[in-house]
Amino acid sequence: MNAGPLPIQSRSVVAQTAALPAVRAGDGDDDAWLMDACAEPNPFYLPALLDPALAMFDAAHAVHLIEARDAHGALIGRLPVTPGNRHGRFPIRHVVNWQHHHCFFGAPLLRAGHEREGWQQILAALDAAPWAGPFLHLRGIDADGPVLAALRALCAVQGRRFEEVGRYERAMLRSHLDADAYWTENVRAKKRKELRRLQSRLAEMGEIVHRHLTDPGELGGWVDAFLRLEAKGWKGEQGTALGSRPEDTAFLRAACAAALDAGLLDMLRIDCAGQPIAMLINFANAQGGFSFKIAIDPEFARYSPGVLIEQDNLARVLDDRITPWMDSCAAAGHPMIDSLWGERRMIAQYRIGLDKGLLGSLALSGMSLAERAYAMIKGARA
């Protein structure tokens, strides 16, 4: 059964089984498994990060929070989506999982052991939604993860169209080695020697202190310092720093505070002579981690402070074991992190057919044919 919008938030819809009463999103029993029993962890869709994003960022269209529940009314799946009117070069209605510009993973939160059931309800809700269009454009998904495996299997059983439309590799950190052994194995000897020389030179500039946030009372000052540091670099010059727009600044403050309360926040910094020269924000827990943002002081760029703080990050993950793995959230082929982290994660996007009748099926098939024809013509001209 598809329920209408939740009375507590007009932008939400809930997918439920049988004739179950609507249950308010965010109930304590619901949220418990979101932190520690997801098939794939995604902090960007947890309330700690999703709620501030929904409050600060206006999407082109309304954001609908699709939720799936089992026969007892317990939450087993959650995916925020938004309608779209254009897909690539084609003006066609569809629905896409919502990823704002600071969201680096798009997998729905599915309770482990209920992946296929959760997907079945989410897709059924989108089938019935008049605003959804003939397909779901699913972005930022681990191509080798259990969430996609369950979706692929369900689509095969239901006869749904399932198309991969792009993929790329990004660096991740996952190892049983300690930080020193990993550093030795993955970083060339010549580079390690050069970094030791730079560390010695940096120490001549003043006392070097390596820290991670332990006192919640210092969070506000750390966030302020991060915003100032990021604004000094190229992101500040281009107007893309988190301090460049009020809504981005407000999101960072709210997200870091909520993540700290939820036990997700891990912040690192390196100070030289009492001033931060590198800072790093991670969102991590016992299921997995995401390296969210890094900022360095461009005046110290010659000392490679970004690489130095990534050494500290290695120690947090591989020595302190704050999380079993860390996703870099980096672009494909990132020159710095790709040279330090040896593992890779395949991030992909897909088109999933929705049941919108014959016209919807024809529209999706026509677009796919047009894409293939365009690719053939483009290849012939190359």
Q: What is the arithmetic mean of pLDDT?
A: 88
Strand percent estimate: 15-25%
Number of helices: 11
What string gives the helices and strands in order? Answer: EEHHEEEEHEHEHHEHHHEEEHEEH
What would you call the shape? globular
Number of domains: 2
CATH architecture of the largest domain: 3-Layer(aba) Sandwich
The count of strands amounts to 14
Portion of residues within helices: 25-40%
Q: In angstroms, what separates the terminal alpha carbons? A: 51 Å
Could you walk me through the main structural features you see in this protein, from its secondary elements to its overall organization?
It is an enzyme of class 2 (transferase). It comes from Sphingobium nicotianae. It holds the Pfam family Acetyltransf_6. The chain is an alpha+beta fold. It folds into two domains: 2-170 and 346-381, 3-Layer(aba) Sandwich (Aminopeptidase); 175-324, Aminopeptidase, CATH 3.40.630. Helix content is 38%, strand content 24%. Strands 3, 4, 5, 6, 7, 8, 9, 10, 11, 12, 13 and 14 form a twelve-stranded mixed beta sheet that branches. Helix 2 (47-56) runs antiparallel to helix 9. The longest helix has 25 residues, at 357-381. It is globular, with a radius of gyration of 22 Å. The model is unreliable at 1-28 (pLDDT under 50).
